[in-house]
Design brief:
seven-stranded parallel beta sheet, 386 residues, alpha/beta
Length: 386
């Protein structure tokens, strides 16, 4: 029987690549649910091609457009965030791909776990903000979280078969982004178009900017803490410009395990969909003779201050990672709108972290409240910059 897949955020980078993987293995997977927030045009095209049972357009303003376009099909059409939260509970869904960005993913993740779904997780913010609560739900349910991020997928794969064996540390690798070899004095003048030129990966705008500032790696460190129960002092980051080695796991006996592949998100997506099995891929195998020179270096945390701020938030705990995430989100938007420079982002994030109350044991409502307060405070800080 085919595995029935829900793709949340089907019109985004992860969503479209997930559908490419399903296209390559349509004998194994079928689409049961598609969701998008604003891109009604592409959602309609995807619905006609994949014929899911249900589609949801997150923005209710586009509901009539999607409904009318699909009225001659058997596809059920709903609208709004509440609808997304409800439809992931459907018994006809086996795997839920979380391709949406931001904290809107928190409730669908919790609902999916409560209904014992397998989750293919590409959303960092949900774990960064509410990792304690999501982990608690995962422990209570028979659902499972399989990470899609290449680094966390690599760690997950390295830990397979290692139950009970002690880890000495994990190392997340980072490409260094487009400004790895740019002097800090020259970074102030770069614009959004420069930050989006990632040397290795095909990613959305927000993640590309986060990669350029290394905030992406900081968020991944927080995510790794929750996904793998690793304390902050056992998580490290190395710059690896080739993006071939995706993470490393060090064990107490001196052994190191890692996972290597070309930098293509379809590889961890396919692994997450097919887990615990591995299936043949149409993607090229890694040729180490052509990639024989693999370099590593320590990140410059003076140049990439966001990385240090993320570790500080992880060590502080409570709602501090939530503050970090919300402040960064607002600051990145301001950079994309050319209101601030790239180097302003860590300054703004740090000010937000310093000016919002730390809650050591927050509830889910505390997290949502903190997110709102942090966004308002960050907007205020940006408005006062000039």
């Amino acid at each position: 029987m085919k595995k029935r897949v829900a793709v949340l955020g089907s019109t985004g980078s992860i969503g479209t690549q997930t559908l490419q993987v399903i296209d390559s293995h349509n004998d194994l997977f079928e689409v049961e649910l598609l969701t998008a927030f604003n891109n009604s045009k592409l959602l309609i095209e995807q619905a006609i091609q994949y014929e899911p049972n249900v589609v949801v357009i997150g923005n209710p303003d586009h509901y009539s457009t999607v409904r009318d376009a699909l009225e001659n099909t058997d596809i059920k059409v709903y609208a709004g965030k509440d609808a997304i939260n409800q439809v992931v509970e459907m018994d006809t869904i086996d795997t839920v791909v979380i391709g949406i960005i931001g904290i809107d993913a928190i409730e669908p993740i919790i609902r999916s776990l409560q209904n014992n779904k397998k989750i293919a997780l590409a959303n960092k913010e949900s774990i960064v903000v509410a990792g304690s609560i999501i982990k608690e739900e995962a422990v209570k349910s028979s659902g499972q979280i399989i990470p899609i991020d290449s680094e966390h997928s690599a760690i997950f794969q390295c830990l397979m078969g290692e139950v009970g064996n002690t880890i000495s540390k994990i190392v997340l690798t980072a490409s260094g982004g487009p400004f790895l070899d740019v002097n800090i004095s020259d970074i102030r003048s770069v614009g959004p178009e420069d930050a989006l030129k990632h040397p290795n990966w095909n990613m959305g705008d927000k993640i590309s900017v986060d990669s350029a500032t290394l905030m992406n790696k900081g968020l991944e460190a927080i995510e790794a803490h929750w996904l793998f129960n690793i304390p902050a002092d056992k998580i490290e980051v190395l710059i690896h410009p080739q993006s071939i080695i995706h993470s490393l796991v060090y064990f107490v006996d001196g052994s190191i395990k890692t996972q290597l592949s070309y930098p293509d998100m379809r590889i961890p997506i396919q692994f997450a969909l097919s887990y615990p099995n591995r299936i043949k891929s149409s993607l090229p195998e890694l040729d180490l003779l052509k990639k024989s020179e693999l370099k590593f270096m320590l990140p410059d945390v003076k140049k990439f201050r966001n990385l240090a701020l993320a570790f500080k938030a992880l060590e502080s705990g409570g709602n501090m990672p939530c503050i970090l995430n919300a402040a960064n989100d607002i600051a990145v938007r301001a950079f994309m709108d050319k209101r601030i420079s790239l180097l302003d982002i860590p300054e703004i994030v740090e000010k937000s972290m310093q000016n919002i109350t730390l809650i050591k044991k927050p509830s889910l409502q505390d997290y949502f409240q903190t997110d709102m307060i942090a966004r308002e405070k960050t907007i205020e800080i940006i408005n006062n910059l000039r």
